[in-house]
Fold these 3 entries.
Entry 1:
Amino acid sequence: MREIKLIDIAKIQHWYIEIFSEEDSDYPNYKRIGQFNRHITRVLNSITKDKEEQRKIYDIIVHQSWNMKDRTFKPICDDLRMLGYTIIQGVSENQIYYQKHREQRIAYQKKYTKEHRDIVLKNNRNYKEKHKEKIKEQRKDYYKRNKERLLQKDKEYREKRKQKLYDNPELLEKGE
């Protein structure tokens, strides 16, 4: 049995109306129109792979969107049922579960974020205290290994700074 979710029908109809209004404007944005067409194609591909069936479904949705006698989804659904499709609500078990347990999730998230923040802050303080000596040792080792290079860089910086001050005596007057 072939099934179509009612939410898919609503999405296709909404995107069709967006395309129509965009094409009706003075300066249509073809990037948006292309995006809406890709969305419609993606939903139709999830319903069926047959291009002819996709065209029939799309035509029914488009033509019944302009039905001014009955402005509900009933005419669309009736025509799709005549094609052999069954219309389902399209709400999954996961969505129902999340709707039922929304308050519990929000309470858990608030509790989790507060506890997580406290744990992170505590760990940061503990890390700093625990590893203070280790960090000092690492810095000393780095300085010992790179002592000559660091001194050379410092010396070059001082020479450049001195040369800059000699070249620009007004910097001395400003106090830089």
Note: The longest strand covers residues 2-5.
Entry 2:
Amino acid sequence: MSTIKLTAVLAIAGFALSTSAFAQDAATATPETEADAATTAPEVKADAETLATAEKINTPSVEGIVTDEASCTYEGGSVEVLQDGTACFIQIRGEEASTQIYDGMGMGVIRCADNGEFTNEISSFNDSYCYVYLTEKVAPKTREELERELELATQRELESAN
């Protein structure tokens, strides 16, 4: 029995010593250290890429405008040859996406107007697409011109048959 008592006394003494050492560490902590630890915010360091992205979010777009075939495909449009000229069929990304962060993402033009030097037309497809003409728009032929072409084609065909 005495061994059990001796073991119990040694265990209690060891616990008491370790507890007093912990209490001593807490007592020696200065208020300045605790205050500094509570009020000092962690330092935030942004890398160059993060800073560049933040700058693009706040800077107006220098792109989002179509003037030729290359800029059409760069902004996500498709070049189409129509009866009245060559046009870029492209989505209108709108003013809410008019900063540099959206440039080159294939989201389209900022607005349908002010693209290139030729006329632009909003598509009838729910007003969110635009035809930006890359060439001068050709006026449709008049009835008289079409009739004259048909008459000439008919004469050539009749002459070649004889």
Note: The chain has a mean pLDDT of 74.
Entry 3:
Amino acid sequence: MAHIDLNQLRAARAEQAREPYTITIGDPPEEFTIPHQRDWPVEVSEFLGVGNMRMAMRVLVGVQWEQMKTHSLTIGDIEDLMEAIMNSSGVAELGESLASNGSSPNTSGPSKATSNGSTVSTSARRSRPAKAASPPAASPT
């Protein structure tokens, strides 16, 4: 069985330079910080997956959330913020960051038949007009 040391992978990832996102809002401007997308807690993805942007933001900004809300945030503000984060990280849509990088290479030829049986086409039967219903049989009196 292959062994994966997540602690080692985390340490290697921590050595990569990833700046947090700095957000400015308000008049006078106030600054807030959101971790880089690769450092988001998994709960953020869960909340975004069910469309709960409020809880996703609460997790992202932590204790800053209550202060951030004093700036009369709108859904449009949150959508614009998320779009800006996705654009700055090269991700077109939420969730895409976890997707694989392209398709797997084609390593085989055409698929082989899985059965030596055959199936009779029913296309001709479906394309024929339906028969008119027969009149009811007369009942003996």
Note: The two ends are 83 Å apart (CA to CA).
